[in-house]
């Protein structure tokens, strides 16, 4: 059509690559001015064309993709995209899989709500000629080989015809009401029977946020990953009094197999990691029981030995712990000076040398769609500040060491900016510029608060929420905790609840300062030594990863950087899940393996070491903390050209599981320990970071608005290259690169190469990686 343009765009109105599904948008002379008498719908569908200033485009609501030959393929409607247990599902894709079965003439799928906040799928099938005797179970079993567990319909009905509307499309409103009929999968699903199975089933239900599974279902097929397995591990420790190696949980990934292992090996005699821990301890050396005690007044005492500490630690309250820690290493608790954690201390020292750096500013931008009450949102922030000490923390120098100070709660400072007065064609870019400037302001660590919040109003019922926090008080997991807490609090306030104790939040049994004191204790320091010995041996002989750069490396990094984004295709997501289940590997392991192949090609080396953050929240008491618990692990693998991708995945999996078992060696101490050994390697231990974002946020059912990630270009970089992948919430890859070293064109080629290489390796995992 002349004078007409067609785009395939994501939610941020960015063009999608070939073969990646997005929303089809139309622009040109034929685009109308809007819907008559429907201003809100007009504002949603008719937007400024970001590629032709002054013109408008129309969001059709149709989903499609461009193929490399220039063909535009229609795949469905975006109003047919739903989320079930946190997974995004395209109903049209399930319909196509059903209709492709040789026994099926027509098929339709709808979403329905058999129970509150429990969306499910219902399937309707018309048999083809001569296929009426086909068992429904045959179709269901065939579909199970093509779809993940969460995309299987739970209700099935056989019809003589699918009702059609006048337009010829399926009239889904005329379909019969779904019936609570079980699928063949559900019929075969075995509920827990033994006491061990029942306890494990309850644990899985809690961490996976669903009860729609049986004892034979695979943990990864239900949406589990390494972080949720860590949560399972901590709850097994609480329920059974056992400390299981994480590698064992990766071996027994169904309830029946894990329960059989536990029962067979007699629960009291289960193998533990290292020496048998004292009751209430985990292998980090931290006393979990002390993290559950109420806070009392503190007084300081002289330093005690590790033996004396161990003898009384299990019966001491957490404020008592504060009394036992040496003031010389941990601050003056009586005077309100509390010890910093090891990572806080490192970041504090770096900030003294680079006071204007924003490399440790972390962001959590969200786009909120729906009605938002500004007064309720301010109340939400006030309750968050009262709940989490980290939001009231500042730092001071005490006895030549940094210490943290917890201030009383005070009203939140919220910056509100209404952008509706700006021309609609400029609002999105203006919002991104404000976000960028907001994130580029350094923090003074001596002055709380070490976070900033802004709310940008872009339309009548649309806002952009900007969280900027310094890394000394937060990490990615903590941001997820804050986001989830804020959404829950706002939802309760919106429903009329005013009692702060009834906001639907789990009780906080500890605060971050308690974690810092535990980490500084003699017992914890002693426990870390075995882990440190492992890493010193593991990284023996490691040389710098030398990547080709556009510019020479400066003597002092500026920490300036940029960020690029790419969307993950549905086929890649499904391949990750399918291969992950077959290999007992998480998406992190698969994606890290492919990243290793890319780095091996770029560096022309087979010895590849990449840093990766780990949440380091391996007991339940730390899951709700707002603070920086994250640690960095060095994943060192050998990429042999003749090895298959299957073999490399197995190696990466083994490397990761062993690294997880030794995650309590602080990266900062490791760098110091290896400094002399690596004197001839000037670039530092880790210059490339890889991270899969799987901290729990998800979509909460009772929130009065929808929310999604709001992307903008950050202007800082801690590493030469950082890859951050979100396979669950926003489904995108983010490449953060140092502008000291790489040009925009090079960074874009790196990102494109990584996505393409990952798709090829997942499609043909039995071939050599070369």
Taking the sheet with the most strands, its summary is:
6 strands, mixed
Inertia-based shape: globular
What is the fold named in CATH at topology level of the largest domain? Chloramphenicol Acetyltransferase
Count of structural domains: 5
CATH architecture of the largest domain: 2-Layer Sandwich
CATH class placement of the largest domain: Alpha Beta
Distance between the termini: 45 Å
Q: Residue share in helices?
A: 25-40%
The Cα radius of gyration reads 27 Å
Describe the overall structure.
The chain has 770 residues and is of the alpha+beta class. The longest helix is centred in the last third of the chain and has 20 residues, at 744-763. It is globular, with a radius of gyration of 27 Å. The protein starts with a strand and ends in a 7-residue tail after the last helix.
Quick structural overview:
With 770 residues, the chain is an alpha+beta fold.
How are the SSEs placed, and which strands pair?
Layout (H helix, E strand, L loop, with lengths): L3 E6 L12 E7 L10 H7 E3 L7 E11 L5 E6 L3 E4 L2 E4 H9 L4 E12 L2 E10 L8 H9 L10 E4 L25 H5 L6 H14 L17 H15 L5 H6 L3 H10 L41 H8 L4 H7 L2 H4 L7 E2 L2 H12 L7 E3 L2 E4 L4 H14 L5 E6 L2 E6 L7 E5 L5 H16 L11 E9 L2 E9 L5 H19 L17 H9 L1 H17 L22 E7 L2 H14 L3 H17 L3 E8 L16 E8 L6 H17 L5 H8 L13 E5 L13 E4 L11 E6 L5 E7 L5 H20 L7
Parallel strand pairs: 9-10, 16-17, 22-24
Antiparallel strand pairs: 1-2, 2-4, 3-4, 4-5, 6-7, 8-9, 11-15, 12-18, 13-18, 13-23, 14-15, 17-18, 19-25, 20-21, 24-25
